[in-house]
Structures are given as C-alpha cells and as structure tokens.
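--- STAGE predict ---
source: upstream dedup step, 1 unique chain passed
mode: sequence only
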Amino acid sequence: MSEGPLGKLYPYAQRYGVNDKLPEKGRPREDVLREMREMAQSEDGFWQSGKCSGTMYCGDMEHYAFLNQAFSLYSHVNALQRDMCPSATRFEGEIAAMALDLMHGDAVASHHPNDTPCGAVTSGGTESIISAVLAYRELGRERGINAPEMIPATTRTARSIRSPSCRRSR
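--- STAGE serialize ---
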C-alpha cells in the first residue's frame, strides 16, 4: 500500500498496516494507544529539532499535558448545548473579553460611541472563515452595501467558496 501514487496517503502502512474498513472486532485500546504514541513521538522529533515553520505551538510538553487534562474534562460534550454545558458560555465570554483587552477593545467607544466591541469563539478552519465573511457582509449591509463582491486571492481555499454568505455575493 505504501508503493505507487497512493503511498503517501498511508505513510505508516508498512509499519502498522491500513484500516480501510471497520473491523469485525475492535482492537485492544492499549494497542491503539501504543501505535498512536509511537507515531506522535516520531512526529514530535521533526519540530523538536527546531526545523519547522509555524506548525507547532510553544513546545512545552508540561503545558500540553495540562491542556490534555483540561480537554479531557469536556471532550465528550457538545458545547453547542449551552443549557447542558453553561461553562462553555463562561469560557467563550472570558476568551472574548481577554482578546478584546489585548486589542484595546475599550478604545472603540471613543471612536464609535454607538458600537460595542464583541467576539465569538470558533473551532477554526471553515467555521472561522464563514464567521468572518458573514460579519463583514452584515457590516456592509449596515453601510448600504446590498450586493457585496468578494475578490479572493488565487490561493483561496474552498472554504471561502462554500460560505453561505458568499453564495449570495459575486
């Protein structure tokens, strides 16, 4: 499976095989975790050598362990269910408030007294792009722009094209 044009799609095929369908019987959890640990340790070696360009964060393994503990407390939760997970509302509000503080959000009042700075937390990727496009579309409507036009770079991702607000734009 690692030979030929599809080989790069299965970089660990020779070592671990390829799961191309759901197995009849599950594997022991420890075996799955062992393979994942081995792959992670191997891959960590790339960025820990200092030879990477912006794909990794701080590199503090103790901090990652802390983040993993925090994540494990909510990894089973759909944070959209705010009635069942009101802490998500708290976390989002605090993150937005901290970001506004870092960006001097309080200065908005002196330049635009009728506006209130705000923020939202997105999960990244497509959701972040669509949220930004929607925000600017709505701002444009407030300013009388009813047929917005997006002029994306030639390197744009498909995400910007899929945005519902883009479909009503040129």
